[in-house]
Amino acid sequence: MINTKTAPPIAISESRISAFLSQTYLVMAFGLFITGIVATWTSNNLNLLLRLNTNPWIAFGLFIIQIFIVAMLSAAVLKLSSLLAALLYVLYAGLTGLTLSSIFLVYTQESISYVFWLTAGTFFLTSLFGIVFKRDLSTSGNVLFMLLLGWTFAWFISWLFPFSNFNWLLTYLGIALFVALTAYDAKRIKQIAQQMDSHPARGGLVILSALTLYLDFINLFLLMLRASRRSS
To answer: How many other C-beta atoms lie within 10 A of the C-beta of residue 172?
Structure first.
């Protein structure tokens, strides 16, 4: 969820808003492309794939690096150059591809492809709703953030009971939560586009906005992929 605080809105042209949104979604799509390429390449490298999934230190190291990148972009995006922000984003997308390569050990390529496009359709419609919806969603953002914290804590607890109905309930609740977060973040990003038109860190804000949507998409994809396993 994007948390960048912005100044009161100023009037700017719709074309400038559309340009910001187009850049954001293009950068997000490029990140997904990088993730897909890296994940597919890794899945075809059996030695690397086994090493990633049998060595907990590698998995933990990748997780820490990814957390660091997200924290750095979120905290210092207004100070970073657009180039550095873009490089960090690409690095994050590549590392995510490494960690996501394990799904090829559990799901078929047909299942992954089907759920990806299903997620893409859901994401597109939800984003469109968030962008065109007129009501202010600032209050909803606080509620969604608290729900996200509670869901994340419950998700970690559910690892102790991997086959329980509670675990599956969290999966479906997570899908609903990230659908709502996608709509909220799309609305918030449009507000940023309206308020930060001439800001010197506009390029960095595009990267941070793209990262926010990228995280929404990845989480929604993984949850829908997991749900598809039970329904199959």
So the answer is: 14
- Its pTM stands at 0.84
Q: Is the pLDDT of residue 64 over 70?
A: yes
CA-based nearest residue to 23, from 221, 222, 216, 196: 196
Residue type, 1: M
Q: Residue ranges of the domains in the chain? A: 14-231
Cα 203 to the center of its chain, rounded Å: 19
Q: Is the pLDDT of residue 44 over 80?
A: yes
In whole angstroms, give the CA distance from residue 17 to residue 123: 20
Of 68, 69, 106, 116, residue with least CA distance to 218: 116
Which residue is associated with the tokens 């990088």?
A: 34
- The DSSP 8-state label assigned to residue 8 in this structure reads P
Q: Which of 33, 12, 8, 13 is nearest to 210 (CA)?
A: 33
Please count the other Cβ atoms lying within 10 Å of the Cβ belonging to residue 55. 11
How many Cα atoms occupy the beta-carbon half-sphere of 112 within 13 Å?
15
* CA distance readout (Å), 119 to 32, 153, 219: 12, 24, 10
Rg (CA), the chain: 18
Average pLDDT (180-189) is 89
**How many whole angstroms separate alpha carbon 9 and alpha carbon 3?**
16
Among 189, 192, 194, smallest CA distance to 216 is for 189
Q: Is the pLDDT of residue 58 over 50?
A: yes
